Amino acid sequence: MHELSIALSIMDIATEESKQRDDAHIEAIHLKIGPLAGIVNEALTSAFQLAAEGTIFADCRLVIEEIPVVAFCPACNAECAVSSLQWFHCSECGAPVSEILHGKELLVSAMELSQW
What does pTM read for this prediction? Predict the structure, then answer.
């Protein structure tokens, strides 16, 4: 379960940010995760809760925003949604897409901090 190592890395990032802000209390960590990142959101949430037990993250919320897959369609010369995760074709014209622009993200996008 690689989600545990990801959860620990997220905690490391949050700890560094907290230190830079005079050891602010971390109330929530916001993530952006695309379906192509290879992360199972429920497994990440469970792993985070497990890793957080008995730490400064024990009452921290993990807020996950799912990012849709967006690609560049050479036929439309524009960004487009893909027809499915198994079929990387433009949802507008059906042409194969040439480049994935969004959907591979695994990003700490924000944190809710407070002073004790």
Answer: 0.86
